[in-house]
Amino acid sequence: MECWACSGSAGISLLTRDGGSRFYWPAIAGVWKPHIGGGTPRDFGPCGDVLDSNKTLMFKHVERRYTHFEPVKPRVEEALLVPFYVQAKAVGTVWAVAHDDRHQFDAEDKRQLETLARFASAAYQTATSLDISKQLASIVESSDDAIISKNLDGVITSWNKSAERLFGHTAEEAVGKNITLIIPPDRRDEEPAILERLRRGERVDHFETVRTRKDGNC
After folding, report:
1. pLDDT, tens digit, for every residue of 197-213?
2. Of 43, 92, 119, 128, which is most buried, counting CB atoms within 10 Å of its CB?
3. Nearest-angstrom CA–CA distance, 58 and 60
4. Do 31 and 99 meet the contact criterion of CB atoms below 8 Å apart?
5. Are residues 57 and 107 in the same domain?
6. Could you count the other beta carbons within 10 Å of the beta carbon of residue 131?
7. Is residue 218, in this structure, part of any structural domain at all?
8. Could you tell me the pTM of the whole model?
9. Residue 39 is part of which domain span?
């Protein structure tokens, strides 16, 4: 890609999360870098056509077909665009642009962009998973209910603020300890049975029980 990068541009276009009405440009390298944050319509732009066809496409003088490119400088001599999807859902494109005729895209450029598109798909999926995890963590932490998670050995792995208020142990005191921390002696036989059912992949329905606070009260 170095052969044209000094006089060209490359970037990523992602569909907006409002239903995908537009593409926005979160990352651009090269002479178009000042246009980071810009974008194009979903249904009237080369990125949209590439996603609709689900294949790599090359365009020349895109402003002749997509008029919203007319004010963008420098103009596009040639553009190569590659779509990428996450779990069969259209997400965006990786693209490269030549602004003059000193470079013409070839099979090697296509191969490199398609490799970048695969990386972009994996990175997007990872970032989305992290966002969802953060949202779930926020919901758990702000819940009025005591929410505790444990592994199949009965070791506590998370302990939210409401669990701190209800049981009196801080998260630092509870995480890493066995769940028997809050189980009274006369209820200890419940836990092995629950863990065994979970190991077998069985569902454990809600049930009433008694647990112990840090001060010894139930």
Report:
1. 877 877 777 777 888 88
2. 92
3. 7
4. yes
5. yes
6. 10
7. no
8. 0.58
9. 2-138
